[in-house]
Design goal:
The protein has two domains: 164 residues, Rossmann fold; 105 residues, Rossmann fold (3-Layer(aba) Sandwich). The chain has eleven helices and nine strands.
Amino acid sequence: MSRQLDNLMMNYPLTLTHFFERTRRLFPKKTLATRVPGMGLERLDYGRWADRTLRLAAALRALGVRKGDRVGTFAWNSHRHLEVYFAAPCMGAVLHTVNIRLSAADITYIVNHAADKILIVDASCWPILEPIRRQLTSVEHVIVMQDAPGTAVPPGTLDYEALVADARPLEAWPALSELDALGVEQDSVTVMPVPGAFELPLAAMALAKTRRFACIVALGCVIRGDTPHFDYVASEAASGLQLAAIETGVPVSFGVLTLDRPDQAEPRLDKGAEAVRTALEMADLFANLRAAAAR
């Protein structure tokens, strides 16, 4: 897509990632309740829900789900369905909710037309799907959620709870909007965590010297305290990152927040997106300069 079509007019991406992270950060002890037939209310807090959602995303990735793949659901409203609601879109897949009240012929057509790769099903809804399972030609895996007492995981399907329990939580959600809109594949992005902002220049220099990267984006946050430590760290991070770019010729973008108070951070989260755009624009500029020099 062209930038004109994507527009990028909003600096704060309208993705579910921000809702997820805010809920996990601010309301981990708040209760999420699901009414389960035959069991009453099933309760868990949002902290545990977030952990399960990250585990589900990792499990889906292990099953081969990639950006743009369709993850279908055929289920009632529940905390498990809510986990899928966030896991699939936040990892870059497409969530496709299939209407459980449609006819078998309609369900078959819709699932195949959408090319659902994974279908996540409540066990209580499985009798509707079982007769048409072989006709769902795009579906590689069926995952069953045991949503009521006495339900079982049918042969040839995967156990939702086992997948979640065995998976290691996804460490971070992919940066979706800015990278997608600018045509950057997630597989081409390397993330290197560092202990703090002071270490960013050394990491940037090491990455740039490999000549494997078109550009580098340095992200971090430094908050002023009661001593001059803030000034030293912020200044050295800025000058060191600039030095890494100058010495290697690889664009290094400065996305480090320098704040007086922690509450200033959230309104400035869009600075990370700005740093991404700046780095990619500089990478394009350098590529064009090299191409012109080679003519």
